[in-house]
Structures are given as C-alpha cells and as structure tokens.
Amino acid sequence: MIDKYLTEREMGSILKKEDKKIIKSLNFVSDINKCYEIHRFMAIYTSKDCENPLDNAKETAINIRNKGYYELRDEHCKCWESIWSNSEVEIEGDDDAMEVLNYSCYHLNSISPRHTDSLSIAARGLSGQTYKGAVFWDTEMFMVPYFAMTNPTIARKLLEYRYKTLGKAKENAALLGHKKGALYPWRTITGRECSGYYPSGTAQYHIDGDIAYAVILYYKTSGDWEFIKEMGLKILLETNRLWLDVGNYYKDRFVINCVTGPDEYTCIVNNNYYTNASAKYSMQWCLKFIQRLAEEKDAYQQFVKENDLTEEEIQAMKEAEEKMYLPYDETLGINPQDDSFLQKPIWDLEHTPQEEFPLLLHYHPLHLYRYQVCKQADTVLAHYLFPDYQDKETEENSFRYYEKITTHDSSLSTCVFSIMASRLGLKDKAYYYFGDSAKMDLLNTHKNSKDGIHAANMGGSYMAIVNGFARVQAEEDKLFFAGKLAGLSFPYPLSRKPLRGQRK
After folding, report:
1. Burial class of residue 419 in the structure, from the number of CB atoms within 10 Å of its CB (0-12 exposed, 13-18 middle, 19+ buried)
2. Is the pLDDT of residue 405 over 60?
3. Pick the catalytic residue: 264, 321, 396, 403?
4. Considering only CA atoms, which of 186, 431, 180 is closest in space to residue 316?
C-alpha cells in the first residue's frame, strides 16, 4: 500500500551534465515503515520528428504528467492487448516453445517505428550499440514478413522508409559506376552507404532483390494496390534497372558477376544463385505490376511519363527474366551457390574446435573465401523464397549438401533451415533448427546478446512456425495453408549447447 505520493517539489533535485550524460538526482527524507511511490514522466523527440524537439518533448511530458501514471498504465495495457490479439502465437503442448516465440514477438513490436515512415528497424533494435543503429536486409527479409502477417500498417511504414531513400539509392548506384537504376546501401541509417568493407558489404547487391521481395510480399498479404502504384512499382523499376545494368548476356544467358550473396564467407563471385533468383523474381513481378497498371490508362501514362519508361526497357526486362542464369550441377543434383563454389575444398567442420566458432573471429576472410564453408543459409534461403524455380528433389539435395558445410555463425540461418526442413518433411531437423533459433537471445546461445537482441532472428523464429510448420504461404489473392501444427516440442533441453559447428 502506498502511504504517500511525493511530488518533485517535495524532493531535493540536482541536475548535472557529465560526459554526454544528463544525470538527475532526487533526494528526500523518508519515514520509517512508510511506502513511497515516485513516478517519472519522460518524452523523447528527435529532429526527424519535428523542428523543435526540445519544446515538443517538454510539452508532451507535461501533458502525460497531467494524465497521471495510472491512466497512462491503463492506456499502455489496452495498447498491448490489441497488439497481442493480432500477433500472439499459441502452441499447445509446449509452453517453452510458446514462451520463446512470444518473447521474440514482444521485442519486434517494441522496436517497430509506429510513429513515423522515415525510420526503419536497426539490426539490433534499440537494445545495444552493435552496428550503431544501422539498417540492413534484416528488416525486409525477416521483420517485414512478421509485420505483413500481424500489422500491415507497420510493414508499409518500413517500406515507405525505403521509398523515401530511393533517391539516395540512385546516387549510390551512380557512385559505383552504374548508368541506370538504384542500388540500396548494404548498411545505412539515412539512406547512404555506411559499409566500410565492400567485399562482404557493398558487394551484396541482393539487397535490391530483398527490398523488392518485401514490397511484393506486402502486396500479397495486404492487397494494397495503391501502395504499389504510389511507391512500390517505382522501387521495383529502379532496382530492376540496376539488374539490367550490372548484368550481361553470356552464351544466351543473363548473368550477374562480381557480387556477394547472403553467405559472407564467400565473396565477390559470379552468378550467386540467391542473387540471380531474387533478380528474376523482382523482374517477374515488376512486369506483372506494369501489366496491371496498363489497365488504368491515365495512371499508366502518368507513370510512364514520370519514370521515363520505354517499351524497349520493358522488353529488355522480360528477356532478362526469361534468360536469367540459375546455376545447376548435374552430378550432385544441386544448385551451386555460385559458379566457382564447387571448385573449392570443403572445410573440415567436424574437426574444427568449438572455441574457433564463429570462424570470422579466428580466420582471415581471404582464407575463408577459398573454402566451401557457409556462414549462413544462402542457396537454401533462395529455395525457401522462390520454390517455383526448382523441383523438390533439387531442393532436398541442396539442403542436405549445404547443411554439412554451414556453420550458422550468422543469427539469420537456423530459422531458414527450420523452414526448409519443414517443407521437405524433415520433422526432427525442423524442430532442432527452430529451437536453436527461438532461444538465441533468451538463453544467449551466441554469447553476444549483451550487444543487442538479434531482431531479424526473432522474425525468423516466427517465420519458422508460421511459414514452416504451419506452411502458410501468401499468394496474390489469398493465404494458403499447406500444413498444420501438431505436437511441436523441443527434442532437446533448452540449455543445450549452441548449434554452431555441430553436424547432425
């Protein structure tokens, strides 16, 4: 029971600045056997929110103080009740799995930019200094899918951020020598490239395909055609112009050379399967959107005029999509990660000491580049995203091949392997990989959660359940359920050692 509510006037207050910090001390004399309650009201604004952030913060802080703590608490609870009604996942028979999954959903909702369309979500959210608040492909490939299913408004805001930085992406493409198109930065905050190491940073051109994929997925789940007309189609057009400029024809096939795929242990390669597949998918849908827009005569003519779109350009895109080269090895029956990947010796993961994982902290990048060893899902991710491009036998052969040489040093890996294992009917493996993904931050299995949560992995854990076990797929006009959740449980204790380096 609270015996007394103290106002700030009843306390001694000391405010001082030191080393970029503002410290406020409150001092008061307490009575024995009495309980006191102190309420602190705070508002935060930045220059991205308004012209006078300090004045706005003061005004808001005063307004919420006048409301009082209990009224604000009730509003807070009602807000979260609404959020959970759309996003909570119930897993019958496995409380541990449900706990770790909703832990992830809580963080994703906590760090989402609900108040603005000029911000995205940093790779480590708001919980650590790693990457200094920078935005990567993590958002589009692992967080947008979560919000597209649970809160399309937030998904749209995240994509609007990319639309607002499209001009910077075009500048970035020109800086790298491209005559046309937009190349989104691998690492950014304001829209400019912040990556300091180009082989595993700027060279990851698949960022364009990732953003295009997110635009398409948002449309599939929301049906928001107005967004496509106003923003989405422009993003797809400019990124596809980049593909047409960076690629070329060789032996009547459209090839894309000197790029880095998602796997950062393999850099600057020709025809990364994931990159080529994402470019093909983006072109497919860009052409489909153009065709639909053409049915709206006035809107189409305006789009053509504003974007200098020509019939020759449309035909060039159509030909490149049809002739896109997707590497395939007849002997192994798999999709090689790139043209030279299978030429390299296989890294002996079985006999690599556990203390040498993650490999990037113990071996020079050039050494890693010379081996068949994957930091994370690459071709396997492409098979999950673009299932129409290969038959099931090729996908299974590829899954088993890459499983043996993938360290999962990246937090973006085990969730993808879980999804593909589910689709291939490998139930035990699906459970195994899901468990590793879901408990990553709650149990700190990668030993770096102190540097910030792995926000993308949290989205990936949700995808492992919804898109993996439940087999939910977004089609153009419907959600398709290809399976069901049944008897989900961890086949091992939650305290199990990290997966990395273990071959099962």
Report:
1. buried
2. yes
3. 264
4. 180
Burial code of 449-469, b = ≥16 C-beta within 10 A, e = fewer?
Answer: beebbbbbbbbbbbbbbbbbb
Provide the residue type at 345 as one letter.
P
Strands 248-250 and 12-18: unpaired
Number of residues written out for the chain: 504
CATH 1.50.10.10 in the chain, residues? Answer: 99-481
The verdict on whether 264 is a catalytic residue reads yes
pLDDT in tens, 276-312: 999 999 999 999 999 999 999 999 999 999 999 999 9
% pLDDT > 90, the chain: 72
In CATH, the number for domain 99-481 is 1.50.10.10
* 215, 274 contact by CB (below 8 A): no
Q: Tell me the per-residue pLDDT of 4-42, one tens digit each, with 9 for 90 and over.
A: 555 656 666 666 777 767 777 878 788 888 888 888 888
Measured between its terminal Cα atoms, the distance across the chain in Å is 56
**Residue 373: Cβ within 10 Å count:** 24
The strand pairing partners of 13, in sequence order, are: 26
Separation CA 351–CA 331 (nearest Å): 27
